[in-house]
Specification:
about 15% strand; 2 helices; Alpha-Beta Plaits; alpha+beta; three-stranded antiparallel beta sheet
């Protein structure tokens, strides 16, 4: 019996209906989201937005597509990740190091 955990992430079948769940001009940001979806076991495809201008006009940068049935779960994971990152940023932003500078 093969261990699925050792299998590389797969891309969704291009013949299925694919839905855009994330796009960004920053490739590094797209790579982080792709890793998040891969870790959650959601098949996804990262592609250049220029490649799919007919489907999503006006986009630039990179786009992540998932199967239609995985879109809600993917968006929920992405939103939860954004909220977690924002809360960490908010907590560290509370410290004002400009006061009480040693003389």
């Amino acid at each position: 019996m093969a261990d699925d955990a050792n299998q590389p992430p797969t891309s969704p079948n291009p013949n299925q209906k694919l839905v855009k769940v994330f796009d960004s001009e920053q490739e590094s940001e797209v790579m982080i989201v792709k890793g998040l979806l891969d870790a959650a076991g959601i098949d996804n495809d990262m592609t250049s937005a220029d490649f799919i201008q007919e489907m999503f006009p006006g986009l630039g940068g990179m786009v992540i597509l998932v199967r239609d049935e995985d879109a809600e779960k993917a968006r929920t994971l992405i939103e939860a990740s954004r909220k977690a990152a924002a809360s960490v940023t908010d907590e560290t932003a509370e410290f004002d190091v400009s006061e009480d500078t040693p003389a």
